[in-house]
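Worked problem 6 (solution included).
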Amino acid sequence: MYAFQYHRPQSVADAAALLASDSEAKILAGGHTLLPTMKQRLAGPKTIVDLGHVAELKGITKSGNALVIGAMTTHAEVAGSEVVRGAIPNLARLATMIGDAHVRHRGTIGGSVANNDPAADYPAAVLALNATVVTNKREIKADDFFKGLFSTALQDGEIITRLSFPIPGKFGYAKFAQPASLFALVGVAVAQTGSSARVAVTGAGSSGVFRQTAMEGALGKGWSAQSLAGIATDAGKMMSDIHGDSAYRAHLVGVMAKRAVAQAG
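Solution. The predicted structure is:
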């Protein structure tokens, strides 16, 4: 690994000041992307700002009709939270499906969302639930946050502090996992609020997480797995790799969407 300066701030303000002092500084959350790339010498930041000891970035609360999760809350904490299980049960279930126990006890929801890996699970939930990403500078709606593969609306020095999930009437998530990594080969999150529905797909799109609007329209008219029959996803917009080509992924979107709706109830 390259030599670097390591900082462990105790507050968001201190972390922001460190980031402002060095344009090449990188934030360390769970470290599952940054540390491997550093070990492989694919990244060599001169400054690392570790958010692991910033207490204000942790915690889970229910505020009105919203579930609020601190950015440095781990996947294991989301999975085991009675607050999450009471508000959005299948969001807790989604957290249990991320990686293995080691990953779940180190990885954080904020780190996952900020990294926006095209096969990560949380981005689909954030988009389907129409969540708000709150930073130390502003609030960003889910539809405006995800910008493409590993790309978000976050600006230099901007830190995700928490995510606010409106509590839906129904929510479900189903994924076909890549066996070795447990990342989503295809994952689909569905949410119903009133008479409207949102459907978000991860692991499949060549531009990252996206909404499947045709499925949203069908579910808005009738919330059932059968409502999705015959709705195709454009294979031309799907990614292809050694684990599955674009046509296979497009087919799996329909399969996982039906399972997610059935799971949501």
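Discussion: The longest helix spans residues 246-264.
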